[in-house]
Each structure stands twice: as structure tokens, then as C-alpha cells.
């Protein structure tokens, strides 16, 4: 038994070292500064023909990395690349398989399992007798083949019992034997994009139509759905009265009375071969890939958006919004276009908090959310009480845009509407200020700036003094214009100034 075991270990070790000596020993060089991990992987694949496989649902490839390697083996380069992210890797066939590694100590990459085996130095131990549990042999026909590029690869760890042995086992031997057991009992599932293409399908419900049970594996040029349609892909046009669902790519035009959903999981080299180009629906559009244009009655969701998203209620771009985003609430990761709505939230956009004073309201707090091209302003402020029991406070909303003058200087152009409540929790009578601001900001540090600038103010009020009957608010310091528009409404205008700190 012992000579056979020694030969087995030798063959296994040699096989794995030869595999590592292939792709993992390939010498590479790169320098990435604050770019997304998926961009780095795509670059390595393009320049060195390195096939990566992973699931975007398990591995966050949108996180940003910074790494530099000069003429080093791929194994060393990958350890450096994943040094500061919770991502590990291993070699399966000729593919580098990435996996989420939440327990990884950031800054100390684990690297591949093969790498750990290769680097471990065995310590001399007394000879022990080892009894192996016989494993089922796998025939040549049953051996899993390396997955093709751009396929979905899922690896499942089997729930296996530990190897039984008598006495102590050398750590290096135990690692090799357990890895070999995992290697032969792990299940590799490969799902390829649908290859079959047909001119058209007509369906009533999923799998009830001209494509029957093959509905989710066929790409159609034209798809017509009555209640709920299901396709493997569409390269042309899809029209549905109710709901349209596509398992992979949508290329062309898609319209539905209720909603559209496109679900493309991109793995491998991350070079997208297809995306949704145009979607329209009465209620919603959902795309797990990129899209050119979406319009719906309720909400839209996609990754990168090239032209725009339009809905009454909600738009979401999980990637970059390159075009126009119009809705009540707009959310995106980054913006090179323009989001227009009541609330615009851009993760990597123009997000500021301000504390400032003015001649109208002495203390003010503002939150600005959106992009440089367009952002929303949410405002609350109050005057210092004069001590006679009276008080005034304001609640406002506005929009603005910012112009960059230099790395430390910007100009803000803003329009505001502020409702003034006087001596009560909320004044229901018209008593509001319209304001145009022109503000210059200078950055004092990385996270703080000082701003100052003039304001043009107009106040329209129907609030009368109960004692004098005069329409006049104490928040107006002086007037350049004071006109009674009719017997109930007064208009006042003046020029003021705002100054404060921006965070």
C-alpha cells in the first residue's frame, strides 16, 4: 500500500505543479489606479489571454482597486491584485475561478489553494501508518471539461467526511489528500448561452407557445406574448400585452403593457456581447445588464444607461448614467449625464452638507444631492428670536448646477423657494421667498470649503399683521421694490448675501 500511495502523491503533486507552471507562471505587468476590478480583469484577459470565471452575484467586481506589478508571475500578480478586496481565486483546468472570500484578512491575500500548497514547507515528522478511505473512481467520460469563456461556472463544495486515518498525519499529506477528495467529488455545472435561434415565437404563458419547453433556451428575432412571455434571448423585437421576460440578452426593441425584465449574468472575460437597447412598459422595466433607453409608467432599473431613463416614480442605474434620467426619484452609482427629479441620489456624485448664515434667516442647514450638472437642495433655517416671543423659520427646496473654476474653486448657480412660517408651527397663508444665488466656494481642505456670494430675493406674501393690517414680514431687511399686486398680495424685492461652510 505504501509504495502505491507514494506514487499517487507524486503523480498528483506533479500534475498540480505542472498546471500551476502553465498559466500561473505566465509573467505579466500592470498598473491600475482606482479602477473597477472588472476593468482590470478585462484588461488582463485582452493583453495576456487569461480566462477568468466568476459569478457577478457572488463576486463584487464593481469595487475599485489600486495595484502595480512589474514583470511577475501571474500567481504573484493576482495576490497583489486581490490584496485589498475580499476576493480569492483558484485554478480549475485552465481557468482562474474567482470566489467571494468574506473572511479574508484585507492586505494579506490568500491567493489560490494551489499557491498555498506550493509554498508550504513540510516539517519532518515521524513515519505513521495511514489507512485511506477508498474513493469512487471517475471515468474519463465523467471528467468535467474546462468551461468555455463567457460561461457561467458554479462550484459546489461537497459535504464530505474527513479522511479516516490511524495516528497522526503530516499536515502537507493531509492537505493534499483532502484537496484530491474535493477535486473528485466537487460538482461543476456549466450553463452556456442559448445557441438555437429562431425567427419568431408566439406565446400565452411561459412554455405555452410555439417554442414550448425550449422557450428559455431559444433566441428569437420576433417575440409576441399575450399574457406572460419567456425567452432565452431576443435579437430584434419583442411585444407583450402583459409581462416580457428574457433569460439572457435583449438586442433591439422591447415593449410591454405591464413590464419588461432582462436578466443577463456576465461571467468570464466580462466583455459583454449583448445588452438591452430599448425598453418601454406601462409599469416597469428591469435589466440586469446595460441599456440604451428605458421608459415606463412606474420605475426603471438597469446597470449602465447610455441614452436615458424616464418614469413617473423611480429610476435606478446600478452603474453609470451617461444620459438623461427623469423621474420623481433618481438613483445611480456615477453620473456623466444629468439626473432631473425631486430627489437625485448619486453615490459618486455631488453630495454636500452646508451650514451658513444670511440676512433673511440667521442660521441655515442645507443638503445638496445629485450631480454637478444638476442637483437638488433641501433647506431649513430660522432667525434668532428677538426676545418678545415672536419667531420665524423657513423650509425650502431648490435646484442648482456647479461650474468648476480650478481644483479648489467652484461657482454655484442656484434657484430656491423658501416658505416662511411666522409665530406658529406652520403658516398656511402664502408667505414665500424666491431666491437666485451666485456662490463662490473655495476648498479649505479635502472635506471642507468656505463659500460666499450675493442673492437676489423676491418675497410674495398675503400674511397681514393682525394689529396694523400691513402685509410685511420681519425677515425682509429692506426693499428695493415694494408693490401691492392687489388688495391681498404684496411683493418685495432686495439683494442679500449668503456665507458659510460646505462639507
The biggest sheet, with number of strands, parallel, antiparallel or mixed sense and barrel status, is: 10 strands, mixed
Proportion of residues in extended strands: over 45%
From the coordinates shown, what is the CATH architecture of the largest domain? 3-Layer(bab) Sandwich
What is the share of helical residues? 10-25%
Describe it for me?
- With 503 residues, the protein is mainly beta.
- The protein folds into three domains: 192 residues, Phage tail protein beta-alpha-beta fold; 145 residues, no CATH class; 151 residues, Lipocalin.
- Helix content is 13%, strand content 48%.
- The strands form six sheets. It has a ten-stranded mixed sheet, with no helix packed on it. An eight-stranded parallel sheet has the order 11-13-15-17-19-21-23-25, with no helix packed on it. An eight-stranded antiparallel β-barrel has the order 26-27-28-29-30-31-32-34.
- β33 and β34 form a beta hairpin.
- The protein is flat.
Give the tags.
flat, 503 residues, 5 helices, Lipocalin, mainly beta, disordered N terminus, 34 strands, ten-stranded mixed sheet, 3 domains, Phage tail protein beta-alpha-beta fold, eight-stranded parallel sheet
